[in-house]
Amino acid sequence: MEDYPVRCPAVGKQVHKDLPSDKMYPLVLTHPNFINQVILDNTAAVLGVFEPHEFKNLNTKKVWLLLAKGLAELCGTAILLSIGCMSLISNSAGGVQDHLSVVISFSFAIATSIIIFGHISGSHINPALTAADVVRGEKSIFMFIYYTVMQCFGAFVGYSILRVLVPNEVLGEKEAGFCCNAVDPRMSTAQAVGVEMLITGILSLVFCAVQDTKNPDVGQTVAIKFGVVCVALLVPAAHFIGSSMNPARSFGPALFSRNWKDHWVYWIGPMSGAMIAAYVYTHLFARHHPSKSRSVSRQPSARITLQHQQNHSGDEV
Fold first, then answer.
1. For residue range 162-197, what is the model confidence (pLDDT) as tens digits?
2. Residue ranges in the chain assigned as alpha helix (H)
3. Separation of alpha carbons 140 and 116, rounded Å
4. What is the reported pTM?
5. Residues 6+ apart with CB under 8 A from 145
């Protein structure tokens, strides 16, 4: 019989004061407390995201931890834009890189950022994935805003550095819209939003799976897994809509170039797709699957393990 947890991860507290934190209840609709617990659990989760628990009881160490997380997101997104967009520069003969080379460059740039900053901030480098963490109850709306601002600023910085280093003559006719996402004229904006929802939703499912404490097969391969998944998603989809899957990735070039054509597509599509996928994973798979403890955290995010929490209470942000 499946188990039903009664803790709210967003606030790290029991949903009901009369229920011990380690108590698990059978997931059967006939259970007398089932409906009440579902309501209490979801209400606490919703209220929890509006509680700035990451910014409570700040001290010098927690402030530095928050700053480190923000700078990690900024630098990670800057790496993504500078390396990824560099692959779009034409060669000396005037030709551009083939489609697969561009896809691999962006995917490996994501993997690089995860390798460098994954243990610091989780290396989301993507507001859509941070929104997914809010839905999962792992981050508050305030942390989402903080991460998103740093990610968007990092995207602008990374793209700006590349544009400063590369002469406009090299970009040629593409200068005005260089590395800006664009919808294929054969597609409607509604279809573009749908494609962004689909591919970002799949990416969000991967994001949820690798952070799931019940997933034993994570280890040090998270960067490789994300790189492979991004290749799988970008190769077929990039032809039609540029395949952003990341509002920050679209924001940096758009801000620098002042090219806002269909820019909303790359916010609405990825954000809604990631949040829906995170909700489905959390409520359909993670919640109703028996929880298994593991002594060492293998998650890509910098969440602190239970043992670490016991030894360093009050340090987590």
1. 999 988 877 765 667 888 988 888 889 999 999 999
2. 34-48, 60-86, 99-121, 127-135, 141-165, 168-171, 189-211, 222-241, 247-257, 265-280, 306-311
3. 24
4. 0.77
5. none
